[in-house]
Amino acid sequence: MKFMKLKRILLTSALLIAAYGSLQAQQTQVIAHRGFWQTPGSAQNSITALVKADSIRCYGSEFDVWLTADNRLVVNHDDIFKGVSSQDATEAVCTAVRLDNGEPMPTLRQYALKSRELSTRLILELKPHRTPEQETRAAEGIVRMIHDYGLDGRVEYISFSLHAVKEFIRLAPAGTPVYYLNGELDPQALKDLGCAGADYEQSVFRQHPEWIEQCHALGMKVNVWTVNRAEDMEWLIEHKVDYITTNEPLLLQQILQKNQK
Ligand code: MG
Q: How many angstroms separate the alpha carbon of residue 224 from the centre of ligand 1?
């Protein structure tokens, strides 16, 4: 009798472990790089691109953030955009610049406010600034604003700057995913830093395909950018990466759907 009970417990445990395993082996998720911008009316890093990424149900919408000369936060990719350097200009000067779809350059506050109506995750990249002090001020302002808008559970931080990565890990609520983009640190080094995983350019994983499994074995995730060709998407899906960041979210969704059948 006792033996039967033990057997049942063992069987239940095995089933639970199997269920957990299949949850772990989730499908690759889609992140729209600078939002979904290759569609009518949209532009890179616009509010429209965020809304459109959400409308096609992307897991996340990536965007880039700068700290302005007057310590405000704006959303844009380029160091110098249409003649304006975000870190040298005031917020007023930055937001007077129009994106290619006619929208003013958004502030992070506008992005956060709009995100409250949406469900896509915010993949927030802090650009490397001229000084570590600027990056610290930016990370402090970002983490505070995300909290104030009730978006703590919706954000993931990424940066090419190791200093910015460390600051997000220090400042953000425990469990907030933070990823490093620059590609030279191996999975164990990322784990030791407290990163959620590797978010690297695809050539890094072509060179070190074993890093994908190593990240998973360490309980970390793998995100890959910026992947726009079908054959590269297929290779990464086969290698079970967790996220692909792409300018072609619809193409990636089609490939994932086809693979499911
Ligand atoms: Mg970016």
A: 12
